[in-house]
Write a structure and sequence with these properties.
mainly alpha
Length: 190
Amino acid sequence: MPRAGLTPDLLVVAAADLADEAGFDHVTLSALARRFGVKDASLYAHVKNIHDLRIRLALYAGAEMIDRIAPAVAGRAGKEALAAFAGAYRDYALQHPGRYAATQIPMDQTLVAEAPSLRRTADITYGMLRAYGLEEPDLTDAVRLLRSTFHGYCALEAGGGFGAPRDVQRSWDKAIDALHAALTHWPGSE
């Protein structure tokens, strides 16, 4: 029988907070059970297993992230939209490291196609890139370029990986300039 007051949504929010505090890898059913003062087994009335919880957390964090990105890019195009998108992405990744880590886990593509927040993310991302005149398969390639650049930069920055005395923000701005140039002068399709 489900414990009064516990819900799947409440568990996901608690898991998100735990991820930011202790790291995504430390989100376990045992840790959550301790937070709520219950036995591990009582959580199984709300989530199937740790994989189910982590997928729910990834979807929750992805929705939060796109809720920050969408208003940042609204009404913008080209470099202005790219910089706004990138800035909102970076801010979220640095302010919520555990939640952000959850957004990077592999997911079943059927689930991805069915999740409204992930569809919204794709719509906003692809819409921004279409302003550069890109079509498939170049759109997918451009999304991969942006994601890998943003993720790599954020991971290095969060981990203290930029030791040179140059201001990290200035390097970020140059990266956005370089991405804008690459998108503007995208190589021809094969």
